[in-house]
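Troubleshooting: if your tokenizer reports a length mismatch, compare your output against this known-good record of 205 residues.
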Amino acid sequence: LEVSVRCIHLASVLLLVGTFSFELLISRPAFKTAGAQTSLPLPSFYKRQFRIACLSLLLAIGTTILGLFIKIASATGLSLSESFDPGAVINLLTGTRFGVVWLFRMVLALLLAAMMSAEFFGWLKSDSVWLRLGNFILSAILLMAMAAAGHASAAEGVTLFIQLAVDGLHLLAAGVWLGGLIPLAMLLSWAGSTPEPSALLIAKE
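Known-good structure output:
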């Protein structure tokens, strides 16, 4: 169960980073370049991307919470149902590095959720590049912070900093590249299903 939850969590955060980075680096510049050459319904594509990001964030938050109780059960020998004990939760969150990193990442996830909720309900301008950049930065830190709870944190001094930086950058690169494959497939499928995809495809090239 722990391995499954970790895999789902990693995949969801990778996709979250990939969705935001793909829009900033690929789809938004391509649509801007296409400009008046196309009448493609660009907002509909952005809505699809945003729904993917929302689903990814929900999965990330859910697996983060579930992973906390699995960690408690693993560390204490309790059953999963017994790991909901408030005392055990507080001890883990305040007395371990895992707990500190968990709290930091949860704050990032909730802040990102607040920003995306404000966009969803129309309280923030959804087509703002600065909003999307903020989403990307928060999601990138959320992903890179995973290094602080892994093997890279098993060091001290300068070595610790180097290992965390390298592992964090490796995770970020995976998010931008691997996490961007699904948005890329969505863009190609969406553009190919429209009556005039040529202008967008030319802009992408």
